[in-house]
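Notes from the pairing session

We agreed to fold both candidates in a single pass and log them together. This is the raw record for the first candidate, unedited. Please don't reformat it; downstream parsing expects exactly this layout.

Candidate A
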Amino acid sequence: MQLTHYTSNFKKQKHSILVVCDNVTNAPNIGSLFRIADAFGIEELIFCGAEISIGKRVSRTSRSTEKYVQHSITENIETQIATLKANNYYLIALEITENSKPLTEFKLKTNQPIALILGDENFGVSETILKQVDAVVHINMYGNNSSMNVVQATSIALYEITKQLNS
């Protein structure tokens, strides 16, 4: 028999993870990030940018998870990164770079709270932010495309990070 969210025996838990989104503005992506944040029990979603809004389109995609997933909106990611560093967060950028490490090889070796940094939907994580993080990870790609949608990439990254935190 298929289980529902009422009959499953998943254990609810929170992980010391913030997801910081730099200029992710597409409403369906924002809504899906709320659902993923809820599914993985992250502490907070932080949206950085001037054009962020949580409206009907977000709510429809999020299936109302925006009502109970802690979130905030701030204009400046630089200020947010400085605050996270001052509060001893371990900063992980999800981006393909010359020096990024494949997520499958990344071993989380910290007891610090974690901030997963996601980049702009078109341009990724900026060089300025990449210079300030503790680790840069990427998802190996085997097809013709060199990137994937921010929500799918976040799902894969959160799966791996929470798996490591729970083991």
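Candidate B (folded immediately after A)
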Amino acid sequence: MQKLHKYISHFILSVVDWFYPMFQKLMPKQTYRYAACGGFNTFLDIGLFFIAYNFILDKTTVQFGNIIVSGHIAAFMMSFIITFPTGFYLSRYVVFQETSVTKREQLGKYFLVVFGCILLNYIFLKIFVDSFGWYPTPSKMLTTVFVVMFSYFSQKNFTFKAKSLK
């Protein structure tokens, strides 16, 4: 299993870094890697959200016992189940390889930041869809812009903070 993990992380890193020369004048390598991996995970998230909302849930609400969840919130939860572990893997093994905390600590910190992202997603989706009456998928896309900014700075400065060289 360790061999497979090393192969996968090395493969992803080689593919991502192959395109870096086109962007090296615009941003540092770590920022580029975050943008590339985050872009992939965001695309996956929005794609899964769209499929879940429009085809799996058929734009309807979901009932869990006495709790009723709107379709766009249920679709967000469904996509989250896939993108949470994918995002952690990419962040840990591709973007933020130099770090001062253990994997277990990182996972806990990552979850805290992701919990903040969940709250932001929920709040913005509620505002955009339920208050403003906007379509769910474009609302999810706009929400993602705010969440990505929060996530990058939180992951860089909290979850995967690099060791300081003194």
